[in-house]
Amino acid sequence: MDLGIARKRALVLASSRGLGLGIATALTREGANVLLVGRSGDRLAENCKAINAEGKGKADWIWGDLSEEVFVQSMVTGVKEKLGGIDILVNNTGGPTPGTAEEMTAEKLETYFQSMVLRVITLTNALLPQMKEQGFGRILTVASSGVFEPIPNLALSNTLRGALVGWNKTLSAEVAGHGITANMILPGRIHTDRIDELDGANAKRQGKSLDEIRTASVKSIPAGRLGKVEEFAAAAAFLCSAPASYVTGTMLRVDGGASKSI
Description:
Blueprint: E1 9-12, H1 18-29, E2 33-38, H2 41-52, E3 59-63, H3 71-83, E4 88-91, H4 106-134, E5 137-142, H5 155-175, E6 180-187, H6 193-206, H7 210-219, H8 229-239, E7 251-254
Parallel strand pairs: 1-2, 1-4, 2-3, 4-5, 5-6, 6-7
Helix pairs in contact: 1-8, 3-4, 4-5, 6-7
């Protein structure tokens, strides 16, 4: 299938590694020009070098930290200078520290709200006028399967990512008439460094080995394995595509069937 995004301009947040990098790579393989964002310039430069060696879409990078107040303006400026405009926005953020609901202090909530919710919404609003003017836009927000089924010991993530669900659905109805879609993609257990970190935290909390935690996790997934970044990224690329023009306001689970909700 031709996704119809060759030469489209995409900004992918938190794309120095993991799911963000996977999405950025998938979009460039479809011929898009992608601007990667992260806090490690060396890693971003290496990623762009590898992507550009494939000779399809083009990749460039810009330093950005979602926790900083200047983040949104930096992204707007970077999009203008390095892409010349925007067609696709992938809102991806790092996850918060593990912990229970009782451990959510006001300070932690405020800190992670800034980087995981506020920056996402304000950046999207800043880039929407151009999408409306050109009559095309794709907004994809990466969240978590925890918005359907809260994940134990991830209270901050369950709370803050859930806030984006109502926002995305509201936004999707407001911009649909302008040729803009707004969707969410929810990863289950996709094998990334983040999953390794969370499994390590759970092993320590439960007094078990990492292998025990991983084995129990895999048993809970009907597919019988962890997902691959490439599989997740392929689903994300479709939601950013031209053929997905009538798909909006949705949440797509990529979890190997792990979610028990309908």
